[in-house]
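Please, does this match?
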Amino acid sequence: MHLSGRPPRFASRPALALAAPALLAACSFLTSCARITAPVAPLPSASAAALPPPAPPPAAPKAKALPLPGEQFTVAGRHAFLIPAPPASNATAAPAAPKPWVWYAPTLPPYPGNEERWLIERLLAAGVAIAGIDVGESYGAPAGRAHFTALHDHLVRTRGYAPKPVLLGRSRGGLQLLAWAADHPDRVAAFAGIYPVCNLASYPGLAKAAPAFGLTADQLADSLAAHNPVDRLAPLAAARVPLFAIHGDVDKLVPLENNSALVRDRYTALGGTMELVIPAGQGHNLWPGFFQSPELLAFVLRHSRP
């Protein structure tokens, strides 16, 4: 029983319908307030999100064992070395002449080796540096020749070395250096080889060499005259670049008659000059006479210094 003596009054349905939107808005407001009080992680800015991760520092060139102390560095992403000659004792304040140097190949992990120590010591004593760059097993292909050009430009433009080095190719280093020399005869003082490979067909053979050129064996055979050093001697002969080789007469790996002797015959026919020393009974080996040859030393010194 109600104290008023009258029955309770309830809101009419129209009134409830009018009040519903207000109640919903109030609930929405309270819910949004609760959300605002919760911690929210800041969103990265558009500029920060677009920044790439920092690049790692360039890797230092992997050190290799050299016959004598020298510098190791990177040129065009390839490992290179330089064994500089000691400064001349009579150096003056006058502008220095370009420094003479010998360019050695192949600069693969074992090379130059201790076999070349005798020769390098005498070059350094005469004021002639020696340098090289590792272009892998490129066999004189254009990619390797491009890295050779990068080394030449670096030493000449940045370090003051002579624009015409003497090239010294041991074994397959002959392919690399002679191929580059045919492209740049004006940048070569002379070429000297220790049983140098001069003929792709002889070593390593077209099937093995072709991938370095990005070709099949048949494609390399069709374009061999454009890549094979023994077929590209005319520019060197026209530039009067002297050649030298010491090559044993029983070399089975790099036969004399298909390499140094063939170069001699073709080069002299083109009007060029080549000195060929043929030790009897010697093959493709570490006989000291190859690396301690007085004729080789005299040739390199004669052409490396102005």
User: Anything to note?
Assistant: The domain at 71-87+97-304 is CATH 3.40.50.1820 (Rossmann fold).
